[in-house]
Amino acid sequence: MEKKLVYFLCTGNSCRSQMADGFLHSLGSEQYVVKSAGLEAHGLNPRAVQVMQEAGIDISENTSNVIDQEILNQAHYVITLCGHADEHCPIISNLNVVKWHWGFEDPAKATGTEKEIMDQFRNVRDAIKARIEKFVNEGQ
Questions:
Q1: Is 15 one of the catalytic residues?
Q2: Is the pTM of this model over 0.85?
């Protein structure tokens, strides 16, 4: 069976799309080829790496990438994780692609104490994990 290509898109490919990428690699790599990118490449957020490590997933070797039109047009699923990426996603010429928007708060914008900021990263991580588990279990 051919693996389906899932392309997660965000603004900077530093937090949410990286977490989604890590979870789908971990939970669905037998069903899916996983890629992620951003409208811009902001680099990997160290707090995202840390909270994923806490969940047993190492994304420290991931790279922050800008959207690749070729991958975009080969994808079976294009999933945006923030409103900005949803609104500014490049035109997809593949008419068979399934495009979804799963909106999550940007943990990189969290303010407060280090604990409060990390709690926001954990909340977003857990919400993304739950959505990825649903996606894998439904066998999209």
A1: no
A2: yes
List the catalytic residue out of 15, 82, 85, 124.
Answer: 82
User: What's the pLDDT at 94?
Assistant: 75
Mean of pLDDT over the chain: 92
- Judge contact between 35 and 62, C-beta under 8 A: no
* Catalytic, out of 6, 9, 10, 24: 10
Query: How many whole angstroms separate alpha carbon 84 and alpha carbon 57?
Result: 26
pLDDT tens digits for range 89-106: 777 777 788 999 999 999
Domains of the chain as residue ranges with CATH = 4-137 (3.40.50.2300)
Look up residue 75 and give its two tokens.
Answer: 């994808």
From the candidates 5, 71, 89, 92, give the one annotated as an active-site residue.
89
Q: Record the tokens describing residue 110, joined without a space.
A: 């969290």
